[in-house]
């Protein structure tokens, strides 16, 4: 798949068809996430994957009803976290950029987009979710206090083919000097 076709064709999917995803495909998709650039190559993204039916059910139970319903029939959930105190930090672990700790989530987003795009190229669909019961998810997955949970990504297959939600006109978002 051409890169532009992949970028334009990826959609957030809110109806999955129950098809499974293999451990091998999950590992390849996470490796694509690891290819993303990061602050000083700090690679602070961590990945927790619910793949068994029991784990999928437990993560689904951590979602608000609307996201839980939208992600019935997924093959897996990928929860990304950031290992804090490295991205955007000096050698003493102090955040020193103008964005404070903003580059932590920035780096995580780059990895997540790689995941979504590579998954799409393999024929999988994704839904990135920022809303979940953080405490319940942290407790179930055993996420340590040095990590912040960033997003939960539903991944699976779909029979739907939604159109791209409208994007803003270029002149509203772009200034060229
Ligand atoms: C950080 C982030 C959080 C999101 N959270 C949710 C969510 O909780 N539920 C949902 O249905 N979609 C969620 N989305 C998906 C967006 O609504 C979606 O990306 C946007 O409408 C554009 O559609 P597209 O992804 O098909 O291009 C989220 C997307 C991002 C990047």
Structure, described:
- The chain has helices at 3-9, 23-34, 53-60, 65-70, 102-121, 134-141, 170-173; strands spanning 45-50, 76-83, 125-129, 147-156.
- The protein is α+β, with helices and mostly antiparallel strands and 177 residues long.
- The longest helix has 20 residues, at 102-121.
- The protein starts with a helix and ends with a helix.
- It binds flavin mononucleotide.
- Flavin mononucleotide (FMN) binds at residues 11-12, 14, 67, 70, 127-131, 151, 164-165.
List key phrases describing it.
4 strands; four-stranded antiparallel beta sheet; NADH Oxidase; 177 residues; single chain; alpha+beta; binds flavin mononucleotide
Q: In oligomeric terms, what are we looking at? A: single chain
Summarize the helix and strand pattern as letters.
HHEHHEHEHEH
Radius of gyration: 17 Å
State the end-to-end CA separation: 34 Å
Class in CATH? Answer: Alpha Beta
CATH topology: NADH Oxidase
Number of helices: 7
Average pLDDT works out at 98
- The overall number of domains is 1
Q: What can be said about the biggest beta sheet?
A: 4 strands, antiparallel
What bound compounds does this protein have?
Answer: flavin mononucleotide
Helix vs. strand class: alpha+beta
């Amino acid at each position: 798949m051409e890169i532009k076709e992949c970028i334009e064709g990826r959609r957030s999917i809110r109806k999955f068809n129950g098809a499974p995803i293999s451990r091998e495909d999950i590992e390849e998709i996470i490796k694509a996430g690891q290819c993303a650039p990061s602050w000083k190559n700090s690679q602070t993204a961590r990945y927790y994957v619910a793949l068994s039916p029991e784990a999928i059910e437990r993560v689904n139970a951590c979602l608000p009803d609307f996201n839980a319903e939208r992600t019935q029939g997924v093959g897996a959930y990928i929860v990304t976290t950031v290992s804090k105190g490295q991205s955007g930090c000096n050698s003493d672990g102090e955040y020193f950029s103008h964005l404070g700790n903003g580059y932590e989530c920035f780096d995580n987003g780059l990895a997540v987009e790689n995941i979504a795009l590579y998954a799409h190229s393999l024929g999988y669909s994704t839904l990135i979710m920022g809303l979940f019961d953080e405490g319940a998810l942290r407790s179930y997955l055993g996420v340590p206090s040095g990590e912040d949970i960033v997003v939960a990504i539903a991944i699976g297959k779909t029979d739907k083919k939604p159109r791209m939600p409208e994007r803003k006109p270029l002149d509203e978002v772009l200034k060229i000097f």
